[in-house]
Design a protein that fits this description.
single chain; mainly alpha; two-stranded antiparallel sheet; about 65% helix; elongated
Length: about 450
């Protein structure tokens, strides 16, 4: 099995699972997507620019003179000389081998007047001189053009290997730095792990194939082939693909539990800071005579407007209808308990610091609820009773006068009877108020006590 087949069999299943999970709709309620920020846009543009740079680097690979001359790596010297003369004659008209040796001037050639072309011709001549040696051709193809022509102190193979290694490490460091800077935002953070693993595997494979594998064939279809240049191009394309995927493929806009907790904590922190600022402003306002006077006048106006609204009959009817559908006391207690639990959890996890939570108030917990050691209410599992087809429990007695009065049965009266009793109680209170002219106390807020009182009044 080749390396390509092994990589395909290992990577393809993971790629398929990842792609399917990316387009799969999450189960449960759909949460609103997170808004995109300017940092997300900047990171995407930066990664696209880095990917474009790697693609451009692909076309600027180190030169390979042997491949340009279309000769094999072990070609005889006379074949190399003839091909080089023909190549230089086409590229630099008027060039001769004596000119390359420096014995004849360039004369009036047009290209010789261009400093860039003149330097290129001289560099090619020096490279040709080095490639006359067959051993230098192997070094040239294995470690690249710049290693053979640029290293003046290299004598052995290990010297050339050490000279070529910094350039390869530099390319990996550049790509890894671009990937790290472009994946700072949470949408692209997953590519840090993927990119690091991919680059590490690619660096290990490249180091083995260039520096350790001595069975490399330097010819491809009769022409010299450079593994150094080949892996350079593969590296550029791999880096470009990785940076492009990091720019395009992002994490889905899902709120994790940690994100939700952090967002709630941030909102509660804002509310807490506003309350503190309001207290400070109020203390500063009441400390000044003129400001205190204006403060009192403003609140008198607000109270007068509120009283006018409260006396409106239509408003009272609508408010009563709305309030009848909710148990405000229970909702307020639940909201306070939820906010307190969230803040306590945030303090415990270290997400929120520097906030002193007030002590929890004592709350009357109904029978069907229990309280654990931390003060969190939880639903107590009720025992299910066997019910016959008529909806009566086996062995239960029909509800009579004792059931209506709350005596003789363990449970409270039905909701419909309680509402009817409340309406009758209200009428009785109105009659007593009209007859005696004295206000009647409102029933207790406790559901059991109010139910018992209502049933006694009705009775």
């Amino acid at each position: 099995m080749s390396w390509g087949n092994l990589i395909v069999w290992l990577v393809l299943p993971w790629a398929l699972r990842t792609t399917i999970s990316y387009f799969k709709k999450p189960a449960g309620p759909v949460r609103p997507p997170k808004p995109r920020t300017r940092a997300d846009l900047i990171s995407t543009v930066f990664l696209l620019i880095a990917a474009f740079y790697e693609v451009a680097s692909f076309y600027f690979a180190p030169p390979n003179l042997l491949a340009d001359l279309r000769v094999p790596a072990e070609a005889p010297t006379y074949v190399l000389r003839n091909q080089f003369r023909e190549y230089m004659g086409r590229k630099f008209p008027g060039w001769t081998e004596e000119v390359a040796d420096g014995t004849v001037a360039y004369g009036g050639a047009e290209w010789a007047k261009n400093p860039r072309l003149l330097a290129e011709a001289e560099a090619l001549s020096r490279t040709y001189t080095s490639l006359r040696n067959v051993e230098n051709r192997g070094i040239y193809l294995r470690y690249g053009h710049h290693t053979l022509t640029g290293c003046s102190w290299c004598k052995e193979d290990v010297d050339y290997a050490g000279y070529s290694m910094p350039g390869i490490v530099k390319s990996y460091a550049f790509a890894l730095s671009c990937l790290g800077l472009g994946t700072v935002v949470w949408r692209k953070a997953q590519w840090r792990t993927y990119g690091t693993i991919g680059m590490t595997l690619m660096a290990g494979a490249e180091a083995y194939l260039i520096y350790l594998d001595r069975n490399v064939e330097f010819n491809d279809r009769g022409i010299a082939w450079s593994p150094f240049n080949f892996y350079y191009r593969v590296r550029c394309l791999a880096f470009a693909a990785l940076l492009l995927l990091s720019a395009v493929v992002e994490r889905k806009d899902e709120w994790t539990d940690g994100d939700i907790l952090s967002e709630i904590v941030a909102k509660n922190q804002v509310i807490y800071n506003r309350q503190t600022a309001f207290k400070l402003a109020k203390a500063a306002t009441l400390g000044d005579t003129n400001l205190r006077k204006k403060f009192m006048e403003f609140h008198k106006q607000q109270e007068a407007a509120k009283d006018a609204i409260d006396r409106d009959l239509e408003f009272q009817e609508m408010r009563d209808k709305v309030l009848q559908a909710y148990n405000l006391e229970q909702l307020m207690q639940g909201a306070e308990g939820m906010a307190g639990n969230i803040m306590a959890a945030a303090l415990h996890e270290g997400i929120l610091t520097g906030v002193d939570l007030p002590p929890k108030p004592e709350v009357d917990v109904p029978q069907e609820l229990g309280v654990d050691s931390q003060g969190t209410t939880y639903a107590v599992e009720r025992k299910k009773a066997v019910v016959d087809r008529k909806g009566k429990k086996p062995g239960s007695e029909p509800a009579g006068e004792g059931a209506a009065s709350g005596e003789g049965s363990s449970g409270s009266p039905p909701l419909s009877k309680r509402k009817g009793a409340a309406r009758k109680l209200k009428k009785i209170q109105e009659k007593e108020t009209a007859q005696e002219g004295e206000p009647v106390q409102a029933p207790s807020s406790s559901p059991r006590r109010s139910t018992r009182l209502e049933s006694q009044k009705v009775k």
